[in-house]
Structure formats: structure tokens, C-alpha cells
Amino acid sequence: MSIEMLSSFYEGKMNDLESILNMLDCGVVKIVFNGDQRTVEWANDAFYSLTGSTRKEYEDQSKSGNPRNVLHPDDFERVFAAFNKHIQSKEQLNIQYRVFHKNGSVVWLDVISNFIGYKDDKPCFINIMRNITELRKIQELREYELKRYQLICELSNDLLFEYDIEKDQMTNYSTTSSNFNMTSIDGFFSRPDAHGLLTEDGITALHQLFFKDVIENRHCKRSQPIQIMTEQGYKWFTVTCGIANRVIIGKLSDVDEDVKLVCDLRQSAQRDELTGLLNKAAMLKKATQLFKHSLENGQAQGLRTGTNRDGKAFKSHAMVVLDLDEFKRANDTFGHSFGDEIIQTVAECIKESFRLDDLKGRFGGDEFIVIIKNVDGPTAQALVERYRQNLAVKCQPYGGRYAITNSIGVSLFPQHGKTVDELFKKADYALYQAKRQGKNQTVFFTEDA
Question: Is the pTM higher than 0.70?
Fold first, then answer.
């Protein structure tokens, strides 16, 4: 084959390749760099349309040779640093940057660059460029909306999240919040121990909210307060969420102060103001619940034989009624402030002498009640005696003026009764016997008393 034929064949192939490249909707360009200058050696039609310039205009090296005439100034240093690194590493470069269109608008490009060697000692690249301006606008709009909602959430004390049902992945979008140090959690429900955000009750409540209340009903729902681990420890949140395309979208509302305030109010409503012990109403309610629960579990039947239905030994509960001796005389003699001091001292001895789990209350005046849980008679007697000794050490004579003593009556559940009223009557009768027998002593109720 002659040189002329080879040249014609080669030219034909190149024309075919150029035609193919011109059919692409992405820019393809061969560029040679010389310091801060560049030369476009060849480009397809789509490349020129990216900036609105013509091939002829790019032939004017005084204009097209300086990238600063095209590149956005905010991106210039970053782009040239990336290309210099690209020359050193020879690895493919993928970068996004802005260029100016001939009409003055800004065009975002996604560029894949391949270093192909040197021409006259100048680095040469083949770049593939795609216009992503609309995509960037969408991304910027999404980022704006996300920042907007994050700001709204911060101002309203809310936190945004997404839960991908298929991936079992939780994403926290409130990254500016100091509450959580994790932005994405894999295996949120399948591996709850790995993140430790929720209590067992919280996992159950959130699973119910997501997979029952929201997915099945297809509308937004709000949870009851649940505890979630934050950088400040467990805090109370409500979770409000809905579903879109198999993704749960929701917010966490910080209700920690509200929940704690309600708890404090409930606690204060149950407490005697002077002593901090349970007041009469709270004491009756808790004691009733305790005895009812014991009866429902078959404890009463077990106590008759010493075992429950499973053959395990059960102990009873003891109701202890305490009444101060000669309190009215001391109160009338030394004044009500002195009387309040006595009541507070007795309450302190009750708290110190009986166990943390026992119910301890003030019925009013100088009368107190303690429910000792899960004890037999001798153990109950030992605890009562510990209280009497504690009181004697602290308070006799109290302030050099009055020796505090207690008359105490005790009844046992369920031997002496299965309700608060039955047990109180028996314990109060035993208390009366203690008073009759000289006071400052403990009497256990007996059926033949």
C-alpha cells in the first residue's frame, strides 16, 4: 500500500472517530499545559458548547490560552493544585469546578482527566467534561433546605433524622447539634448494642412506632417520651415521623425538662412536705398495689404453706405503724417548731433504719407507717428494733428536754390480712396494746390478743 493510500486511510479513520466524538453529549478535549497557559489541541463540538465559544475563538491563543479567562476565580487555585498533583501521581483525576459561559452565566463541570504523557516536555491530558449545572442547583437547593431545616430544628430544639428501612440505617442530619456524636448508624435495629443510643424499652417503642404505627397506617405519628443517649447522658425525647419511599423521615423533640418537671411534680405530690416521706394517699396507693400484685402472683397461697406455686419459699410483708409517745405534751410545752424538729428526726431514723426498697410514709401528725417488703416475722422485728435503737442513740433526751420514744404495732401480710385496711386495723390494735403495756415498745398482732 502506498504512502498516499495509507494517509488517506488514516485520515478517513480519524474523520470517523471525530464524527463519533462529535455525537457525544459530553465534551472531549485534548489539552497541553505550559505553566499557567494551555493549548486546546483538539475538542469535539460538545466541548465548545460548554462555554459557548467557537473553534475559531479557541484558536485565538491570547484569549483561550489563559485559563483565568474561563475558570471561576474561586476555583482557580484548587483546580491547578489538583492538576499538578495529577501530573505527579499519573492517576485519573475526577474534579468539579465552575467556568464562565460566553453569555456571562456560570457553568458547573464534572471533569474526568487522564494524563497521557508529555508533548515537547509539556504535560498533555485528555479530559471528558459534563455539564452538571442543573444537578448542582438541585444539590445546592437540597443543601439549603437541609440547613434551613437544621436551623429551624435548632431554634425549636428539634433534631432531624432519616431511617432507611431496607438498609436498617439511621442518619442524623442535625450534625451541628452537640446531642449526638454519630451521623450515620448501620444496623440500627438489628444491632442496637453497637450504638447504645436507646434503652430496651426505647428500642421496643421505636420499633412499634416505625413498623406498626407509621408503615401500616401510612401517616405521621408521634411517640410517647423515650430515653435516648446523648453526650450529656440519657435524655427524654418524643419522636414524630412519617414515611416516603421506604424511608422513615422524622424529628426528635427534646422534652427532657418537661418530663423531669412532671416527674418532680408527681414526686412532690406524693411526698410529705415536712419529712420527704410518702404522704398518706401515696402510701395507701403503693401499699395497695404491692398487696394486689402479691396476691395475683399466688404469693398469698404460697405463704400458707411456705412455698409458692413453683415450690419456692416466699416471705411475707410487714405493716409497721409507729406513733410517738407523749408527743402532744412535748409539742404544747416546747412549741410547734420543736415538734417539727422531732418529726423530721424520726423521719431520718426511719429512712436510715429500714431498707431502700421498703415503703416509708407519714400518715399525719406523729403517726408513721412502714411496709417492710418480703420479710418473715423475725427479720421484720430485727429491722424495727434497729430503728428503735437508732432513735434512742440520736434523740434521748432530745435537745436536753424530751426523750423521743415510739410505740409500734406490726401486722403481717397475708397472715393477718390481704388488704391495707385489714392490715392497718390489726397493726393499729397492736399499737394500742403497746401503749397500754407502758409505751416505748413493739407489739406484733396475734389472733388471740
Answer: no
